[in-house]
Write a structure and sequence with these properties.
With 302 residues, this protein is α/β, with parallel strands linked by helices. It has one domain: Alpha/Beta hydrolase fold, catalytic domain (Rossmann fold, 3-Layer(aba) Sandwich). It is 28% helix and 25% strand. The termini are far apart.
């Protein structure tokens, strides 16, 4: 199944399992405030979660969480439970909405989603106390592709990026303003965005798989150390998955590239909402992607 076509199933899965309907989905995700901004003639919507500890006296980190295709920001919050991580660590999280649920990653639509996200960040900075050196992006599926492309087109705005089950084309132009720390997660049994990547999609461009993506970012960051792979503890025997961590070091600025391989894992968010197994595959409960992403982000500033 092509990665752009499957997310209608994801939307149905999230709604049916957790919320009952899209109308109630938003209400079922506590702590989100809606904002609008007009960019390029389009009114855009995004959702912000402010940690309970926020007073405005201290500038906090900001994490941009980019949803999958045919989905929306509140569902991304529910899938990842990142609001809990934000509350525990004093982080502001924002969940932008794509027009009709689809990100314009390839420039085929009239709206400029990269400009939207850049303008959204600026508006959030004018509303809340944000540490401009600690702005990060993470995304799932097509949102992972979008996140990686943001790391290229707007690298000066982000201190680190993370993707789950989605990667940019191998030929995507990526002039980095600074070395970019990169973290990714991918299941080997993902039938919606292959662990090995997709060839022949989008005008023949190759949408990278997990190892290709980590190696690509290692090349962009001039990493010189060989990759090392560690087997992780199988703490939940009943979830049907095991995990390995592949690390590439020796990069400019002393940073790392990290890949969590979810053996037998599907097109899912590790530690997140369990989607329909028959459609999306298994969700790892051995690790929690949202917590690991924040632990990774917290090491880096731009």
């Amino acid at each position: 199944m092509k990665p752009r076509r499957f997310m209608a199933l994801l939307l149905v899965s999230i709604v049916c399992l957790s919320f009952g309907s899209l109308r109630t989905a938003h209400a079922a995700v506590p702590g989100l405030t809606d904002y609008t901004i007009t960019v390029g003639g389009y009114q855009r919507i995004y959702h912000v979660h402010v940690p309970t500890s926020y007073t405005g006296a201290t500038a906090l980190p900001l994490v941009v969480a980019v949803h999958a295709s045919r989905d929306n920001g509140p569902n991304m919050a529910a899938l990842t439970h990142f609001n809990d991580v934000a509350d525990s660590n004093g982080v502001i999280a924002t969940y932008p909405d794509a027009i009709n649920g689809v990100w314009n990653t390839d420039g085929s639509a009239p709206q400029d989603d990269f400009a939207f996200i850049a303008a959204m960040i600026q508006q959030i900075r004018s509303t809340y106390a944000i540490n401009s050196h600690r702005v990060y992006a993470m995304g799932f599926s097509e949102g992972g592709e979008m996140t990686e492309e943001l790391g290229c087109t707007h690298s000066s705005q982000f201190a680190a990026i993370a993707s789950v089950s989605g990667h940019m084309p191998s030929t995507y132009a990526c002039p980095l303003a600074h070395p970019m720390p990169y973290l990714t997660f991918h299941g080997t049994a993902d039938t919606m965005w292959s662990y090995a990547g997709w060839a022949g999609l989008r005008g023949g461009q190759h949408l990278m798989g997990a190892v290709d993506a980590e190696n690509k970012w290692a090349s962009l960051d001039s990493c010189t150390a060989p990759a090392t792979t560690t087997n992780l503890p199988n703490t939940v025997l009943t979830d049907g998955t095991t995990e390995q961590l592949r690390v590439i070091g020796g990069c400019r600025g002393g940073l790392q590239m990290q890949l969590y391989t979810i053996n037998n894992g599907g097109h899912t968010w590790p530690g997140g909402l369990q989607l329909l197994v028959s459609a999306f595959g298994l969700t790892s409960q051995d690790i929690d992607a949202s917590s690991l992403i924040w632990q990774f982000f917290a090491q880096y500033q731009s």
